[in-house]
Amino acid sequence: MPIKRPSVPAPREQRLYGLNACLAAFARRPESIRKVWLVETRIPKLKAVLAYCGKQRVGYTVVADDDLERLSGSSHHEGVCFAVAPAKEHSLSAWLRELPPGPAAALWLDGVGNPHNFGAILRSAAHFGVAGAMLPKESEFSLSGAAARVAEGGAEQVPIVRLGRTDNAIAQLQSAGFTLAAAVVRGGRALYSTPLPERLVLVIGAEQLGVTDELARAATLRLAIPGTGHVESLNVAAATAVFLGEWWRQRHG
To answer: Options 3.30.1330.30, 3.60.110.10, 3.30.700.20, 3.40.47.10; which CATH number does 14-84 get?
Structure first.
């Protein structure tokens, strides 16, 4: 019998850092900003943000680099850190209701848990117009400051969808015309010679472990990226970019 995990309340505040990540959050959801810290050399790039803060009475402080490293929790802060209300996660039902008809690609991140890989995946997803990135119900993983920085603004463009029960999620997606395709290292059809469906959910497994058996069985397609074989596989974020690039090529030529 599966162990029921206690629910974890969503955090009320999150630290975002990295110039492009912060500017994207400001462009997309300025009302979420609670506080801004920046180094003096970033003032020219953040004039619009500071003007907004002044108008809306949102606090901002010019700090030293080492203070910003402490506030952001990272040496890769790029001179700015925002305290923000966390971005909303969507339910699958709500996401499907809002999704326009026609071609769409989505990602099912089955066990991906490294924030840097997650950020790189979101960056590729934004570039190729992915409609949503889905996280399993039981996963404690969510968008972090580190993932948002690596995404370079892409985290604000790709809706995060929190799934319910796996079997229900599969049924809902199939009813909406989506085909599930599992990314595999071996035993799959060659990506470049396989016509991809207009509505595609690409299931990406965790590094080393791959796609879980339940999702692998539910997938209509099993896809692999041909290569030299000199290495066993691509990094999960690199592989995702290749899959999405081929889906985009088949849709847009």
So the answer is: 3.30.1330.30
